[in-house]
Amino acid sequence: MYFAVIARDKAGQAELRNRLRPEHRAWLRAPGEHPVVVRLGGPLLGPDGAMDGTLLVVEAASKDAVQAFLADDPYCRNQMFAQLEVRQWQWSLGQPVAEMVTGP
Question: At 43, which helix (H) or strand (E)?
Fold first, then answer.
């Protein structure tokens, strides 16, 4: 199953976000024991173009698995988000193919 994760930063979190960003990005790529795969992601931007949130699309067996994965994310561990929403999502446009097809 796929899930969309939408998170909005608390006000005044730019310094914390910048400090934690390398650890957060490493976590998304290697989440340890969590059986969650990040399929795409990136920061949400405010009207001024500054990062003020996060958008992820993850693949996992359940919403509980996603929530456990997020609980160990550096941004969540440091209580950076004012809002965090996890919703099941149906990937229909631009879905990646299961296998890489190569030419002859």
Answer: strand 37-45
What pTM, to 2 d.p., does this model score? 0.85
List CB contacts of 53: < 8 A, sequence separation 6 or more. Answer: 6, 7, 8, 9, 43, 44, 81
- Cβ-contact 86, 80 below 8 angstroms: no
**Could you list the residue range(s) of the whole structural domain that residue 53 is in?**
2-89
- Could you report the per-residue pLDDT of 38-59, keeping only the tens digit for each? 999 999 999 999 999 999 999 9
Q: What is the CATH number of the domain that holds 57?
A: 3.30.70.1060
Residue 7 domain-assigned (yes or no): yes
* Strand arrangement, sheet containing 37-45: 37-45, 51-59, 2-9, 81-89
